[in-house]
Design goal:
Elements (H helix, E strand, L loop, with lengths): L30 H7 L4 E9 L5 E9 L9 H10 L3 H18 L5 E7 H22 L7 E6 L7 H12 L4 E7 L6 H7 L3 E4 L1 H4 L6 H17 L2 E4 L5 H10 L3 E2 L17 H8 L28 E3 L4 H10 L5 E6 L2 E7 H8 L4 H5 L14 E3 L4 H9 L4 H5 L1 E5 L2 E6 L1 H16 L11 H13 L3 E10 L1 H8 L1 H18 L6 E6 L2 E6 L4 H17 L4 H6 L1 E5 L5 E5 L2 E10 L6 H17 L3 E5 L6
Parallel strand pairs: 2-3, 3-4, 4-5, 5-6, 6-7, 7-8, 9-10, 12-13, 20-21
Antiparallel strand pairs: 1-2, 1-8, 10-11, 13-14, 15-17, 15-20, 16-17, 18-19
Helix pairs in contact: 3-4, 4-5, 9-10, 14-16, 18-19, 19-20
Length: 613
């Protein structure tokens, strides 16, 4: 460990503005110590861009070491500072050179300067609020143009003290930002207690967000938290146009990353050209959807049957009395203390109890002998996945006996098999409105939400409704399994021809699909969908049907007639987003276009629109 001279105190600072308290090394100095002493650090500035209008909102000052040295990069500098126990002196030097340079070049706008929580507290304790204000002013920077970006490299040891320091610093006019939220070191409590004006979202959540629905959902949750605490969000690490479109359309205020602008010694006046083009375009991003149908919460509507219970000491006569007094009871739970351990089925027990001489011989014996000692226990706030195990179990006792409902392990009541089937069915229908369980494509709700986004931005797009011709005949003739295979074929062909960044594909249900296209070559894409599907679908018929061009089957009136092989119809309508206000208007027009296409015998048919319906 190197010897250090005392840090500069308040009275050591010259009146015309001075440095932050950096420990200077007089002898035996390391490379980093020499860099600090000789003031050889320098900042580069990366723009932070408004995603609403492509204007430059601010710059972040990023520190570099001497060119050509092994301590040029920030990672190398941070490692050296930690190894040589110079973390705080290094941070103060970085703050000084960043603010000083920003003031010297008379740059416009705000500057973000990094500082760890511990270094900020120490700096405040040594300099005080007024002295910090004087220091900032001495570098030619107004406090309101400075944003201290708190980096939490280590866990904050005294949150309350940090909150008080932040409050005092904020009274000088300096703003606060929280860096890399979500990287594992950040804390929701830190956000709540400090209430920073800006929170930066870690690049893990922004990288490839165009393809990851879970990241999108996470950022939407962060937006809700930001609304509660009054913070603006900056999305870090934006490197592609696709990711920026999604973040822009999510309503994230600001962005930072190589796609928007690289760090440079001179602050940028404009965002990069490609970023400006993307931010000002009219089309919207296609949000990624979860790849599988989700359960969408818990089965909250499953009725709980209030039923009496028995214990390990209860007799068969006592159990019979309960069943006779409750004719609607399908089962009774067996409890050990307050913990359910078994379930006794009414029909099986009463069948035994009614046998000749049973009451005389066994009436006063414990009823536990009749219990299923491996009952299915379901917590009150259960998920659909827990309950599906009952329906799919090879042990049918779980369906006939039902199950025991608990609350934190304590008995609440019983659930029945028929209630379970009804509730699971209702929940799956609701889930299918979000994601179709056959193709995992977005269902009715995401389709409507995407149309709303298109109309809100007044985008011109093409609404297409795809439907199969003579599909029912194929499904009836070859079976539902082959029918499902054909529907999945249609989904696959549509996905192959859609631009995943511009074109939205949804599955309404059955063989009905919705395409919301922003691609300028939409007609060619639709024609390729029809051609590819018709070619592959033909191979799903047997040789006899392919040779004949179709199959003979009964129609809806029971009359046997010839049905051609299944083909695809797509009805298309050009939508002027400025003329419509509701998704159902667009959906109705697309449905009419589909009917036109089916009447024409297949292919792509465009319907003219005169006014919203």
């Amino acid at each position: 460990m190197h010897a250090q001279v005392p840090s500069i105190s308040h009275r050591d600072l010259p009146p015309n503005g001075a440095a932050f308290p950096i420990d200077l090394i007089t002898g035996g100095a390391s490379v980093l110590e020499n860099i600090l002493e000789q003031k050889r650090l320098f900042p580069v500035f990366q723009p932070i861009v408004s995603l609403a209008d492509a204007s430059i909102y601010a710059h972040e000052a990023l520190i570099r070491g001497p060119q050509g040295s092994h301590l040029h990069t920030p990672d190398a500098l941070l490692r050296a500072a930690a190894q040589e126990e110079l973390s705080h002196p290094f941070e103060y030097a970085c703050m000084e050179v960043a603010i000083q340079t920003w003031g010297r070049i008379k740059a416009q706008g705000r500057v973000f300067v990094n500082v760890s929580a511990d270094a900020l507290m120490e700096l405040y304790n040594r300099q005080g609020r007024e002295r910090l204000t004087m220091l900032v002013h001495s570098f030619g920077v107004l406090p309101r143009m400075l944003v201290l970006e708190i980096t939490e490299h280590e866990r904050v040891t005294d949150m309350d003290q940090l909150a008080e320091v932040v409050h005092q610093v904020r009274t000088t006019g300096v703003s606060l930002a929280l860096d890399d939220f979500g990287d594992g070191r950040s804390s929701l409590r830190l956000w709540s207690q400090l209430k920073p004006e800006i929170v930066k979202i870690d690049k893990y959540f922004t990288k490839d967000i165009c393809a990851h629905a879970d990241k999108l959902k996470t950022i939407q949750a962060l937006q809700q938290i930001a609304s509660i605490f009054g913070s603006e969000l900056v999305a870090e690490g934006i490197e592609t146009a696709q990711d920026m479109r999604v973040l822009r359309d999510l309503g994230i205020s600001y962005g930072q990353g190589y796609f928007l602008g690289h760090p440079d010694r001179q602050p940028a006046k404009y965002a990069q050209v490609n970023a400006q083009r993307v931010l000002r375009e009219r089309e919207i991003a296609v949000f990624p959807e979860l790849g599988r149908a989700a359960s969408y919460g818990q089965l909250k509507n499953l009725a709980t049957v209030s039923a009496p219970t028995v214990t390990l000491r209860s007799t068969n006569d006592e159990l019979a009395a309960l069943f006779l007094g409750g004719p609607d009871l399908h089962a009774i739970a067996l409890l050990e203390g307050e913990r359910p351990v078994g379930l006794i089925n009414r029909a099986r027990f009463m069948n035994e109890y009614s046998k000749l001489y049973y009451r005389e011989v066994w009436g006063r014996k414990p009823c536990a002998a009749h219990a299923n000692m491996e009952p299915r226990l379901i917590e009150k706030n259960h998920s659909i996945d827990q309950l599906l195990g009952i329906l799919t179990s090879t042990d049918q006792r779980y369906l006939s006996d039902g199950f025991i409902i608990t609350d934190n392990g304590q008995y609440v009541g019983l659930g029945t098999g028929d209630q379970l089937v009804r509730s699971v069915t209702e929940t799956r229908i609701e889930a299918a409105r979000h994601a179709n369980p056959l193709t995992f494509l977005p269902g009715n709700i995401p389709i409507s939400l995407h149309i709303e986004r298109l109309l809100k931005k007044q985008v011109n797009f093409i609404a297409c409704y795809a439907d199969l011709n003579n599909f029912k005949t194929f499904n009836d003739h070859y079976g539902y399994w082959r029918g499902d295979e054909m529907i999945r074929l249609l989904a696959k062909v549509c996905m192959e021809q859609c631009d995943s960044q511009r074109d939205f594909l949804g599955h309404v249900g059955g063989d009905d699909f919705i395409l919301l296209l922003q691609s300028p070559n939409w007609r060619q894409r639709c024609e390729r969908v029809v051609a590819d599907f018709d070619r592959h679908a033909l191979m799903m018929f047997d040789e006899k049907a392919r040779s004949a061009g179709g199959i003979e089957a009964e129609d809806r009136q029971g009359v046997v007639r010839f049905f051609p092989c299944t083909t695809l119809s797509i009805g298309a309508v050009v939508i002027d987003g400025s003329r419509f206000t509701r998704p159902d208007q667009v959906a109705n027009l697309a449905a009419l276009a589909k009917h036109d296409a089916k009447r024409s015998g297949g292919g792509v048919v465009e319907r003219c629109v005169t006014k919203p319906s």
